[in-house]
Amino acid sequence: MPLTGELVVAAIIFIGLCGVVVPVLPGLILILGAIAVWAFVVGGTAWLVFAIAAGFLGAAAIVKYLVANKSMKDSGVPGRTVIAGGLLGIVGFFVVPVVGLVIGFVLGAFLAEWWRCKDLRGGWNGAVAATKAAGLAMIIELAGALFAASLWLGAAFVY
């Protein structure tokens, strides 16, 4: 693959990594797609690199949900709290770009837990638990994405 193509793939992978951290873009899908295009153009054993990268990304996608769900259940926070946080996070993103996503998520989780517990402390504890679970899920997804990106980068130097 010519250097220009490699740089385009690298840029898309970088955008995908940013999409994992700031969940506005489908980060894992962008990374997987970029590596797939690279493997298609390069051919041969590049498909093995794609398969391993897909394994990293798939494992991260599954593990993040399992770990976040367990974390939420251990803290006694129901799934609807995360849904409320996510919905208010989406609204917050458009009201206060990028930063509003985090502010809206925490506020939505707090309000949902406050409504459920009828207690400010319970609301705050629920919001903290939901935020920890979301952060843990993001870290797991980022780890898988970084493994896949690193694998591609090493393979790109070989090809």
Question: What's the story with the biggest beta sheet?
Answer: none
Spans of at least 5 consecutive residues whose pLDDT stays below 50 are none
How many DSSP helices?
6
Shape: elongated
CA(first)-CA(last) distance: 8 Å
Order of helices and strands: HHHHHH
Query: How many β-strand stretches?
Result: 0
Q: Structural class, from helix and strand content?
A: mainly alpha
DSSP helix fraction = over 70%
What portion of the residues fall into strands of 2 or more residues?
A: under 5%
Integer average pLDDT? 90
- The oligomeric state is single chain
Integer-rounded radius of gyration = 19 Å
What does this structure look like?
The mean pLDDT is 90. Helices cover 88% and strands 0% of the residues. The chain has helices at 3-21, 27-42, 46-75, 79-95, 99-117, 120-158. It is mostly helical and 159 residues long. It has 6 helices and no strands. Helix 2 runs antiparallel to helix 3.
